[in-house]
Amino acid sequence: MSDMQSAARLFFTSQSFAVAGASSDPSKFGHRIFAWYLAHNLHAVPVNPTCASITVRRKDFDTVASSSQLKDPGNTGLSVITPPSVTAQLLREAKEVGVKAVWLQPGSFTDRELEYAMKEFPGAAVGGFAEGTVGGEGWCVLVDGDAAMRGVAQERGRDEKL
């Protein structure tokens, strides 16, 4: 198993998730990724400082403006779907409030943001083109999330048998 696969599995051991860049617009990846969490029955909070709520699957969800407003950041995995200039600040804030793990979606980072995430969230940052992704755009929740979740379930199953 690659380091990135391990980080992806660790990400999905989070008790809740936050989606920075979540949107009501179905054509945007922030919308698609937030909907993915909902479809997988995972507790997710939309992070968007420009609106009080978003609508996904005909249901309204209150947003938080930043990761500093998350109820339990230490048990939250943060999916990032923002421009790199926004991602840089978001990562600093996430580190400051103790976010457990981060997943940088394709297009949300440059080498600088990815290096920062790898350094500040050791073993708990997912992103880039490291070995293990099956997507041509790099590590993406929509493409690689199911496999990471299956890995967590398999590990938990082994632990329960012990």
Structure, explained:
There is one protein chain. This protein is α/β, with parallel strands linked by helices and 162 residues long. The longest helix has 21 residues, at 141-161. The protein has 5 helices and 7 strands. It has helices at residues 3-11, 29-39, 84-97, 111-120, 141-161; strands spanning 16-20, 44-47, 53-56, 59-62, 76-80, 101-104, 125-126. The strands form 2 sheets. It has a 5-stranded parallel sheet, with helices on both faces. Pfam families: CoA_binding_2.
Described by strand count, sense and barrel closure, the largest sheet is: 5 strands, parallel
Q: What do the pLDDT scores average to?
A: 95
* Ends distance: 22 Å
- State the helicity in percent bands: 40-55%
Structural class: alpha/beta
Which sequence of SSEs, written as H and E, runs from N to C? HEHEEEEHEHEH
Number of strands: 7
* Discrete helix count: 5
The neighbouring-strand order within the major sheet is 2-1-5-6-7
* Residues in β-strands, percent: 15-25%
Low-confidence stretches: none
* Molecular shape: globular
Rg from Cα:
15 Å
